[in-house]
Design brief:
The structure is a single chain. With 892 residues, the protein is an alpha/beta fold. Among the domains are: 94 residues, D-amino Acid Aminotransferase, Chain A, domain 1 (2-Layer Sandwich); 138 residues, Phosphohistidine domain (Glucose Oxidase, domain 1, 3-Layer(bba) Sandwich), CATH 3.50.30; 291 residues, TIM Barrel. Strands 15-25-24-17-18-19-20-16 form an 8-stranded mixed beta sheet. Strands 27-28-29-30-31-32-33-34 form an 8-stranded parallel β-barrel, surrounded by 6 helices. Helix 34 links the parallel strand 33 and strand 34. Helix 5 runs parallel beside helix 7 and helix 24 crosses helix 25.
């Protein structure tokens, strides 16, 4: 049996249906489906997307049998309509429309009124007794065909139409009379000649040129960009299908019209009909904005019967598709025809409301609702966003000056500040944007005080990015086109100078940077429908969701967002506060253990209070505390004045301080004296930290009856003996304190797996550890050999040239880093079935990474507070998808 490439629909017959989107595209599949459920659709046929795939694989040619199949279906169409394609007396006109399996509105091409020529236009005029309508349709076809199929600039046609209207001083296309439309047709034909093109009079030639154009539009620039932006991998679809549909005409007079409608409000999700209608018009008039449309009530004035029928169809479509629909329709002489239906694009707010409402309406179940909302939409609801119209205005005014990496979502507007201390102070009074070449740990206060952060250097897991996400701050990093001049308090970019105090707006969701102020809209937060949806997600997901939090505020926010514990508390962040950094530096410059312990004794009470505050916020939930990780030089001052003051405080000469500081500098701190290596050299540091952790827990249990679950994590272990050495110190210190206190306290000791050797030898380390936490930021660096701060210089090239499929710092590298996580988890759990395994890198909040680690079988992910709701939804979606995947596999 010959391969079938063309599928007919119309007059109660449909050879396809909604289940065939992969080959008929959304448009063709849904036209056939509407025929099946008894909705009035103009007859037509769809050329399979398999032809698009063939077209590109065979030098833009078609299978030999396609021509005959198209001709056969054209004859069926003629029979269904009672008209004949190319006939001078009773011409059949068609639209040639694109449509892929995934809706890509406006990205590919469509041609209307095909089949008109100098003869058929006369027949159409006589047949309809409406010469104006016939020539209006003809001029539309010539313009659209020239633009879409032959590449003649659309604006050149517009100049011709404006010239004709100007002669009589009219403004609207609908005001042109028959003679003016005839003149316009001739002007258009002359334009073809000027462009060296020929307008084909043969309808069959028109048809095949149009089919070529629609298949060709699959790889146009805007379609490719749309797929990239929406993360639709090239090759994941066959391409576009082509639907050839008999024309119905909304431009036949005042009893005709065309419209676009939504079965619910696409902005809010409210259950109210929402749409626009244009009398005496064709579909592109609504989309192009040539005329201002009315709301749907305008249809009632044209035809009350068509209006009532449309609203009846809304209900049928929602009940059938069980989703909010976006429809296109035409009314011809009072009769309603549906031209398209598809699942409607909607705002994040609307997506959540529609999903929850449809469960309450018993249209869908909770699992379907969970799958209907994307993690990105949840993200949008949790961060301030620019007002859409205000942002469009800023773009139109050419106020966008550069772009960087979208590091932390949301939008922020404020006055530019170049100094972190000033940002911390000024930020209490007015909104500021902190602009830095890059940020360091000492900039934390300024980052906290700022509305947003912009850096010239750094990647998505750089300090600025990680901290900003943890704080829920908007950030754009790695904007390498900006040149920051700290001395003169300004930055320059593309010929523009921005000074301190100037207003700046940044979009951390897109990476865009704008001059001036742009109005922001506050997020909805975890209330109402979003809270309901996430509660359903919690009932489904297997993976636990914790947070990365270093402060009580972070912990509180994360708990409000549904975190089930803290998966990473970075203790070194606590050392940078103004009241303790002097003691830290005193410890660093001490010559003996006794001197270091004396300095640490000053820090210990403060760190204990830090832990108490965090434990208090997480009452009854586990808190994983990482012992000090960075190399000591990161705690040293960078400026001469502070170094001199330090020398004075330490009773040392300035030269001695400089020499000691120089000795601490490292060529590659990532591989240097940090993490467990530092703690083994200076065991008094982890001893102090364990005392602070355990004493904090004991005091809270005794004084406030708070349930504390501490987990002590050793960083950067690569050899089991490193963990053994430190575990002995930790357990000895902790057990003595617990025994002395008389309280019952259970704690865990584990390690952060961020060195490939740790993953490979996890069967050895797992015998000593009670938990593993994969630090996937550093594990990515150590596996790839990429620096997360410097990789921005080449990663974009790698992505553009297809060297790597995704940014490994944004989405977990499944084949490399992911495989190490798989090996480590499997080996660790084999020797220790009770081993608790999580990840605490930035990948913990990335939906694609969550799917990877969920399949591996780890126990939880940990992410920044503002990504906790995203992780909750993504984990639930992963559970649903994995169950479906395994179910299909078992059936096979």
């Amino acid at each position: 049996m010959a391969k079938k490439y063309v599928y007919f629909f119309g007059n109660g017959v449909a050879e396809g249906g909604a289940e065939m989107k992969d080959i008929l595209g959304g448009k063709g599949a849904n036209l056939a489906e509407m025929v099946k459920i008894g909705i009035s659709v103009p007859p037509g046929f769809t050329i399979s997307a398999e032809i698009c795939d063939y077209y590109y694989k065979h030098s833009k040619t078609y299978p030999p049998e396609l021509k005959a199949e198209v001709e056969e279906n054209m004859r069926r169409l003629e029979k269904a309509t009672g008209k004949k394609f190319g006939d001078a007396k009773n011409p059949l006109l068609v639209s040639v429309r694109s449509g892929a399996a995934v809706s890509m509105p406006g990205m590919m091409d469509t041609i209307l009124n095909l089949g008109l020529n100098d003869e058929t236009v006369l027949g159409l005029a006589k047949l309809t007794s409406n010469e104006r309508f016939a020539y209006d349709s003809y001029r539309r076809f010539i313009q659209m065909f020239g633009d879409v199929a032959l590449g003649i600039d659309h604006n050149k046609f517009e100049k011709e139409i404006e010239a004709v209207k100007a002669k009589r001083g009219i403004k609207l296309d609908t005001e042109m009379n028959v003679s003016e439309l005839k003149e316009l047709v001739e002007r258009y034909k002359n334009l073809y000649k000027k462009e060296g093109k020929e307008f084909p009079q043969d309808p069959n030639k028109q048809l095949w040129i149009a089919i070529d154009a629609v298949f060709g539009s699959w790889m146009n620039k805007r379609a490719i960009e749309y797929r990239r932006i929406n993360k639709i991998p090239e090759g994941s679809m066959l391409g576009t299908a082509v639907s050839v549909v008999s024309m119905v005409f909304g431009n036949m007079g005042d009893d005709s019209g065309t419209g676009v409608a939504f079965t619910r409000d696409p902005s809010t999700g409210e259950k109210r009909r929402y749409g626009e209608f244009l009398r005496n018009a064709q579909g592109e008039d609504v989309v192009a904005g040539i005329r201002t449309p009315e709301d749907l009530e305008g249809l009632k004035k044209v035809s009350k019967e068509a209006y009532d029928e449309l609203y009846r169809i809304f209900d049928i479509l929602e009940k059938h598709y069980k989703d909010m629909q976006d429809v296109e329709f035409t009314v011809e002489h009072g009769k309603l025809y549906m031209l398209q239906t598809r699942s409607a694009k909607r705002t994040a707010r609307a997506a959540v409301k529609v999903a929850v409402d449809m469960v309450k309406e018993k249209l869908i179940d909770k699992k379907t609702a969970i799958m209907r909302v994307t993690p990105d939409q949840v993200d949008q609801l949790l961060h301030p966003m620019f007002d859409t119209n205000e942002k469009k205005k800023a773009i139109a005014e050419k106020r966008m000056i550069t772009t960087g990496l979208a590091a932390s979502p949301g939008a922020a507007t404020g006055k530019v500040v170049f100094d972190a201390d000033k940002a911390a102070t000024l930020g209490k009074k007015e909104p500021v944007i902190l602009v830095r070449p890059e940020t360091s740990a000492e900039d934390v206060a300024g980052m906290a005080g700022a509305e947003g952060i912009l850096t010239a250097r750094g990647g998505r897991t750089s300090h600025a990015a990680v901290v900003a996400r943890g704080m829920g701050k908007c950030a754009v990093v790695g904007a390498e086109s900006i040149n920051v001049d700290d001395e003169h308090k300004l930055f320059t970019v593309n010929g523009v100078t921005v000074k301190e105090g100037d207003w700046l707006s940044i979009d951390g969701t897109t990476g865009e940077v704008f001059l001036g102020q742009i109005k922001t809209i506050k997020p909805e937060g975890l209330e109402g429908d979003l809270a309901t949806l996430l509660k359903w997600a919690d009932q489904v997901r297997r993976l636990g969701v914790r947070t990365n939090a270093n402060t009580p505020t972070d912990a509180r926010v994360a708990r409000e967002f549904g975190a089930e514990g803290i998966g990473l508390c970075r203790t070194e962040r606590m050392f940078f506060a103004n009241d303790r950094i002097p003691a830290v530096r005193q410890m660093i410059f001490s010559n003996t253990r006794e001197q270091r312990e004396k300095a640490l004794d000053k820090i210990m009470p403060m760190q204990k209070e830090d832990f108490k505050a965090i434990f208090r916020e997480m009452n009854g939930k586990p808190v994983t505390i990482r012992l000090i990780d960075p190399p000591l030089h990161e705690f040293l001052p960078q400026d001469e004045e502070t170094l001199k003051q330090l020398a004075k405080d330490m009773g040392l000469s300035y030269e001695e301080i400089l020499d000691r500081a120089a000795a601490l500098k490292e060529f590659n701190p990532m591989l240097g004296h940090r993490g467990c290596r530092l703690e083994i050299t200076y065991p008094e540091i982890p001893t102090m930290q364990v005392k602070a952790i355990i004493q904090a827990a004991i005091e809270l249990i005794k004084e406030e009856k708070i349930n504390v679950i501490p987990e002590i994590m050793v960083p950067l272990v690569g050899h089991v003996n490193e963990l053994k050495f430190l575990k002995e110190i930790i357990t000895k210190t902790a057990d003595e304190l617990i025994k002395q206190s008389g309280v019952k306290l259970t704690y865990l000791v584990g390690t952060m797996v961020e060195i490939p050797r740790a993953a490979v030898t996890a069967d050895q380390i797992g015998k000593e550890a009670q938990f593993f936490s994969f630090g996937t930021n550093d594990l990515t660096q150590t596996t790839f050999g990429y620096s997360r701060d410097d990789s921005g210089k080449f990663l974009n090239d790698y992505l553009e040239k297809g060297i790597i499929p995704v940014d490994p710092f944004k989405t977990l590298d499944k084949d490399g880093v992911g495989e190490l996580v798989r090996i480590g988890t499997k080996k660790g759990k084999k020797v220790n079935p009770h081993l608790e395994v999580g990840i605490c890198g930035e990948h913990g909040g990335d939906p694609d990474s969550i799917k990877i680690v969920d399949e591996i079988g780890i126990d939880y992910v940990s992410c920044s507070p503002y990504r906790v709701p995203i992780a909750r939804l993504a984990a639930a979606q992963s559970t649903i998808e994995l169950k479906e995947k395994r179910s299909k596999k078992n059936k096979k």
